[in-house]
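seq as requested:
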Amino acid sequence: YIKHPRFNETTLDSAIALLQLAEPLGFSLSVCLPAEEEVLQPSSTCVVTGWGAPEAGMQKGDKNLQQLEVPILALDICQSYYINLPNKVTRRMLCAGFPLEEGEDS
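struct tokens:
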């Protein structure tokens, strides 16, 4: 994989990467990305994917790519959850999930 050149391991800013596949992938549906000038509205639903730990407290992620629909959170609300970690949530990040509730997040 190729990490974003500005990825910061401390703050996790620019945490995105490109995957290079060993063989061609059967392509069926494209991803619809917002225009650069489009503002993603809080409470809008988005689809997130990743190999993160499927349950809180687990160290290892899943071998299979996971997918989840979650609501987008406003930046200030998201930052308030990380108040003790300054610069943890930046304007380049998208915060989504179900904070302070039972449920899955990203």
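The chain has a mean pLDDT of 81.
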